[in-house]
Specification:
CATH architecture of the largest domain: Sandwich
Number of strands: 16
Radius of gyration: 20 Å
Strand order of the largest sheet: 6-5-16-13-8-9
Shape: globular
Distance between the termini: 13 Å
CATH topology of the largest domain: Tumour Suppressor Smad4
Order of helices and strands: EHEHEHEHHEEEHHEEEEHEEEEE
Helix content: 10-25%
Oligomer: single chain
Largest sheet: 6 strands, antiparallel
CATH class of the largest domain: Mainly Beta
Length: 310
């Protein structure tokens, strides 16, 4: 791999992972400067303050996204909303410092600055696909890139409530606490699905869409093989109380596709969902959205990433 672009921008989410990562960012910045790069660190202290339009108008750059899955999601969605087909996008990398680093973890990005520089600087350049969700609400539609995963059902409900705590408490314990809270009160609404032209009706615990193998801080929701041009879907139906321990164990240490009575895993090209509720929440890379229905497929444009040399 040739030397990365001279101009480097580090988008640093100070709140990622509970904060306190300034020394790590300074270490990466100093290492890159010692290699002759011009480095600018931009702190993302408030949601929606990404201002990436100026970045893609200023020529060739290397963008390092320092945060978790949510930072990756917000930055690249902001860039997508401001770009067009003719613009040359920057080269991207991720420095994982968030509470959820599933996308970066699957691609073996180190969490320590020295190891990160050693493995990424002369790493592997690869064109990466992602998913695209089209959300329909009040006669309008909104397009959102899916980098790691999307979740409906109880997953969406948890993220809806978690958003209220985002500014004051982001510790992982909230995910588990809210998941348990909603499990015992979840009403199991009906979801009407259309997957690659076939219709189905479900009352699931959760429906999850993924680009890789894991989500939710290491839960292996997607054991199915990768397939070119397709995304992954895992539907977990209502489990019995006796099945819950095995389900949780399989999510972290086993293969949930073997739980055939409770779990349905498959790949798809086009997926649509609506509910018997007037609206429902969908979680995309840790961010919550409200929608009446959603259409999901593979996003055709690729993004160039500098990945670690494993």
């Amino acid at each position: 791999m040739e030397k990365p672009p001279d101009n480097v921008i580090i988008f640093f989410n100070k709140l990622a992972g509970g904060g306190g990562k300034e020394e790590k960012i300074a270490s990466i910045s100093q290492s890159l400067q010692s290699k002759g790069h011009h480095v600018e660190v931009i702190e993302l202290t408030t949601r929606g303050s990404l201002r990436l339009k100026s970045v893609i108008e200023c020529g060739k750059k290397w963008l390092i996204l320092a945060g978790g899955d949510g930072t990756l999601h917000q930055c690249l969605n902001q860039l997508y909303s401001h770009s067009d087909e003719k613009q040359i996008l920057p080269l991207f990398s991720v420095f994982p410092i968030g509470s959820g680093n599933d996308w970066a973890s699957e691609r073996a990005y180190p969490t320590q600055p020295k190891r990160w520089i050693d493995s990424v600087y002369f790493g592997v350049k690869k064109e990466m696909h992602c998913g695209l969700a089209t959300l329909f609400q009040n006669g309008e539609k909104k397009k959102v890139l899916i980098w790691n995963s999307a979740g409906m059902g109880i997953t969406g409900n948890v993220v809806e409530e978690l958003a209220k705590l985002r500014d004051c408490d982001r510790i992982k314990a909230n995910y588990l606490r809210l998941a348990l809270k909603h499990f015992f009160s979840y009403a199991y609404p009906v979801f009407y699905l259309r997957v690659d032209g076939k219709e189905a009706t479900h009352r699931p615990l959760t429906i999850n869409i993924g680009t890789g193998r894991q989500t939710g801080g290491g839960m292996k929701f997607f054991p199915q093989s990768n397939s070119s041009g397709e995304l992954k879907c895992t539907i977990i139906n209502k489990p019995s109380l006796l099945a819950i321990p095995r389900l949780i164990y399989s999510l972290y240490y086993g293969d949930i596709s073997k739980l055939a009575k409770t779990v349905n895993c498959f790949n798809f090209k086009e997926f649509t969902a609506k509910s018997n509720c007037s609206r429902f929440f969908i979680e995309i890379d840790g961010e919550g959205y409200q929608t009446e229905s959603v259409k999901i497929g593979m996003f055709q444009k690729k993004f160039s990433f500098l990945l670690p040399d494993k």
